[in-house]
Design a protein that fits this description.
Length: 278
Amino acid sequence: MPRTTAGGQPWHSPLAILTALALRAVFRLALRQTEGPIGSIVQLLGLNLAVPDHTTLSRRTATLEVPRPSRPSAGMDGESEPLHLLVDSTGLKLCGAGEWLIEKHGTHARRSWRKLHIGLDAETGRIVAAALTTKDVDDAAQVGPLLDQSTGEVASFIADGAYDQTSTDHSVAERHPNAAVIVPPRATAVPSDTAATDPTQRDRHLQCIAEHGRMGWQKRSGDNTRARAEAAIARWKQVIGDGLRSRTDERRATEVKVAAHALNRMLALGHPISVRIA
């Protein structure tokens, strides 16, 4: 849609930019390469629309508002069930000059990378929270930001041993006092001083491990569902890739949100819609 002012350029809706960036993420395209598939789709649909060029896509990536995932309603009251949040993290490489340049000049450059933190809905498998940080940021420091992105009540917070820290319990309790914190204690963990009189959730986990073993605790606590978060990260790297293509941090943050949006969309299309008839 053209502007009416002098020197105006075609204006593209946020949905058009989001669609183009989602295709770019799934097919691992450069910005220039993204123009071709978008133009072909517009032509096949018989539409007379301007295709956003690579410069527009790069500029709009910095300010694009990606829709936050909403949880489906359940029950007669229309309210969603409490969320069981699975959290995990992984590393993503920053794409640079390429491997051929290192091989050509015989240099050995250390790869730079960022850390991706995701929060997963254990029931639906959808990514409900995502954050991108530098590699030196502690995993437990992102518990609060991930919980802030999650909508609705959180019934449980499930993560691996890297989140076995006091700050994790405080972040969850501050936002969702009734939520269960299911994090495997370290092998050297010891009960707190108040374990006998006022045991914490971690104290109860240690007691269950002492009585039933670590495998028994995993089954009783629900820690086994943590494998779904690991599967989500594997799906991310298989579909989206293990690197980031943007050059600035604000564009990388949008790139991560677009990738999560695309994966959620693919997951929704692949799941059957079940309706109870009796």
